[in-house]
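Schema walkthrough. Field components (list of strings):
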Amino acid sequence: MSRLIEEKGKESESGGFIILFFILGLAASLVLGWGVFPKLLYSQKKQPIDFNHVLHVEAVEEGCESCHFFREDGSFSGLPKLAQCVDCHEEIQGEDPNEVKFVEEFVANEREVPWLVYAEQPDCVFFSHAAHVKMGKMECVLCHGHIGESSHSRVYEENRVTGYSRDIWGKNISGLKKNTWDRMKMDDCAECHAKNKIGYDKTSMETLPWPLNWALLPYEKQIGPKARVQAKKDACFVCHK
Amino acid sequence: MKIGRRSFLSFIIGGAAGTALSPLAWKSMDDSSIWSQNWPWTPVPADGEVSHVNSVCTLCPGGCGITVRKVDDRAVKIEGMKGHPVNDGGVCILGLSALQLLYGPTRVKAPLKRVGERGEEKWQEISWSEAVAEVAAKLGDLRSKGKSHTVCSILDSDKGTVPYLFGRLLTVYGSPNFIRTPSIQDSYELAINLMHGVQASAGFDVEHADFVLSFGSGLIDGWGSPVRMFKANSNWKDSGSKVVQIEPRLSNTAAKSDKWIPINPGTEVALAMGLAHVIIKESLYDSDFVNNYSSGFDKFKQLVLDKYNPDNVAQITGVDSSALVSLARNFAHASKPLAVCGRGQGKTQGSLDEFIAVHALNALVGNINSEGGVWAVPDPDYIKWPEVEMDSVAAVGMQKERIDGAGSETYPYARYLLNRFSGVVNSEEESPVNALFVAGANPLYTISDSKAVKEAFSKIPFVVSFSSYMDETAKNADLILPNHVFLERYEDVPMPVGLQKHVIGLSRPVVKPQFNTKHVGDVIILIAKALGGRIADAFPWDNYEACLEETLGDKWESIVENGFWSDPDFKVPASEEAFNTPSGKFEFIPANLKSPLDFSPVTIEGSDISYPLILVPYDSMRLANGFIGNPPFITKTVEDTVLKGKDVFVEINPKTAEEIGLIEGRYVDIRTPRGKAKVRVHLFDGIMPGIVALPRGLGHTAYDKYIAGKGINFNELIGPVEDPVSGFDAAWGIRARLTKV
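Field assembly_structure (string):
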């Protein structure tokens, strides 16, 4: 009898062990997945020059567009080239070590600054700033956040696998976002295009240079809540050149 | 505490559950898919400022406008220029691949002087001033010995400022030997010259024609200006216009035509005369044109009625007589019929009889200089340089007969006869050519009977190539003075081939020169200046760009802005004033011809006993066969039944193959009176029995390892057959024999 009780006790003990180990495994993998993995996945890089947007926005006349402008042919200049900086920075101004480094290392040697681009997309992605900013009248903040209000360049986190910035997937490793500028994946483009039915009604069709159709055709059924790209002719090639 | 198997499994399950609840799995999946699309060896253009430059492609005589996309200083994509009068946004596969010719390894990177044996490829880099001095010294030496007339230039064109600079240098130096590479341009120019009495190129209003009768012209295989022809072909399909293709092989053009008429090769001239017979006999011709604006019609009528009745023609051509009659009726009844000739891409001249016969067909239906017809388009006369003042040496040299015999008593009609060049040089103990300049041409590859051409070149003591690439001719030269490629240089490109409008395109630097090359125009000016005297006086410009800008004058600004200049007022004169023949009318039988034409098919080389088969070449858009080597991008598109590995396939009808006992893929030796090669067999129902075909554009022995060594060069198997009247190369094929190996 006592042997039986003993054995039962042993069995329940081992049942507890089993649960304990389950919880241990669960906890360990959760810590790994949510805590360790993101740290391992991204390397931390510093911009070559710590750039102060606040200071510059105050100094220039036309806000963001003073440096991030559209070229004559409508293409977007993105990052300013050294040529634009030199207008003001031919000589060292002030005593900021970043300013000294910029002028001595780059301006003096006529070397472009190898900026790390937070919003860099793969080569296969075709994106027209003109279509969004000029025609769609979108604010820069909508996709790029309040970068213009930063006084220091934040750390650039590079995905060790893909080589792209963490900003594309988003700071939140789960992929969830609060603001429109938190992520820059294809779904995020689609979300906005679907919400605004861009390419659906006639007026916006005319404002956009491509026949993008995000709405259902009359004979189609809505399957899920998410918008999807219609498999119309050329649909993929609108954005994926 | 002992950790048992169950606890371990539980740990694993817990771990799996936790992993599923963490972003690790799907984030890794997403990342690895992005990673797998970004292999480090996949070429991705660097980021940078995107810009576009409008220019003109000069890889063929088509003269298409191109728009080159650049990222910062690098050209990354070539597209057709929208709104260009030739190609309106279209581009061909060669134009698309041209960046490989700019950035590829086949470029000559600096002036080179031969130090080893000819063709041994031992070179020494020299400076441009040394190179110019060396050429000038050689030319000065020849001139002082009274041998100025033994200097010769071979170019791909005689239109535009660069050929004019060459011509000018030769003239003022004292040599009549400017030679243009052969093509159907020669034959069309001569046919128009004899029948219209004017010096003009043939323009074809293909956009408005509603019945196109093609005597073997590869309308969508690269004949004329290729992209324009593709577009015209699409229009014909949309508008219901008919295309009838006459040739012994089912080419792409034949396959896409409304009717393909296989014909005994080389007998097209008889078919044209047979069609004329039906049209005249049934009075289907344009009587207004024939009665009022033509001469010699009665003689021509007599000839076709006597000799070319449908039954006779059927026997010669193998085309059924009833098919011939209905074709003639359909052609004559069409509202805008157009007959064209020049086989394949028109790279060989062809027989004069054929061009005269086909042009006569056009005249019979009254489509000369009219909408949808053939136009005689004179060169635009924008190059108005002052006449050169020749010194006595030049005057004497210019009086000497040309080396190729063009314009002589034997060949009074031809302007250039490069096909005779190697024969003349080889027939003499000492080469009659002492210095040869080659620019924009690769005669060692493109001229038939390559072996003889090579022998002739080896006899010439001084050969200078201006090629941008290490092509066959450059490889066997003494000096290479590399020109910029067309994406690095300015050049006017007048008269896109076959266009019935006046258009001058402007090739312009898209990127800065990648290597230590120099514009050929600049080099000519420098050589002239180094020679001094009257020669230097004839070249008052500081450099080529200044010369070009001055030449184009008030057109310069608009040509720079638009990429081309087009004459909105260009018209050909009405039929009353269009002809400058002795009769003042269109001449069916040209009165200026001393000997009468007999309109008989050209006999090709070889006896039918030792060579039972007939070998013909074929052209393809996927194989550049001019002076440009086929870039690797295009070679990749060539089918496995044309080129597999390094083997080229000879097309043969299954019936003929069975008779010889050949099966698909079998290796055979092909022998012709001019050469032999090892090829593989491809059975093809689209080729007439007894005929075999090989593609042109393969078998390079120079350039780089990506272009050379693939297949065989057709020109090694064929030799020229001289047209008795014009002296042109009239060969359309050669007899051949296949033997198993």
